[in-house]
Amino acid sequence: MIVADFYGLEVADISGPRRSKQLIKPRQVAMYLLREETKSSLPQIGGVLGGRDHTTVMYGCEKIANRIEEDDQTRREVIALRELLYNHRVPVG
């Protein structure tokens, strides 16, 4: 997963049950990007990220959306991650 690599984590860290401070932001960024870039439902995203409740996903998405508006570092991270996502896509056809 690109988000895990970006933050120097394992996919299991992002989708696992641990709730340490170092995992919260990357996990919320993953939620936000999954929601924004794939239009997946909140329950689908929660399922991918370790069976989290849809309200947890909703909170995480809102938290990152707010941080993008208020925090330059978070905005730059999300932009960089989007670039990585789009540069890794395989052309169809």
The largest sheet, given as strand count, sense and whether it forms a barrel, is:
none
Kindly state the percentage of residues in helix. over 70%
By DSSP (H or I, 4+ residues per run), the number of helices equals: 6
CATH homologous superfamily classification: DnaA protein, C-terminal DNA-binding domain
Backbone shape = globular
Which fold name corresponds to the CATH topology?
Chromosomal Replication Initiator Protein Dnaa, Chain: A
Distance between the termini: 24 Å
Mean pLDDT: 93
Question: Can you describe what's shown?
Answer:
This protein is mostly helical. The chain has one domain (2-87): Chromosomal Replication Initiator Protein Dnaa, Chain: A (Orthogonal Bundle). It is built from 6 helices and no strands. α3 (21-38) packs across α5, α4 crosses α5 and α5 (54-70) packs across α6 (72-87). The longest helix has 18 residues, at 21-38. It is globular and about 30 Å long. The model has no long low-confidence stretch (mean pLDDT 93).
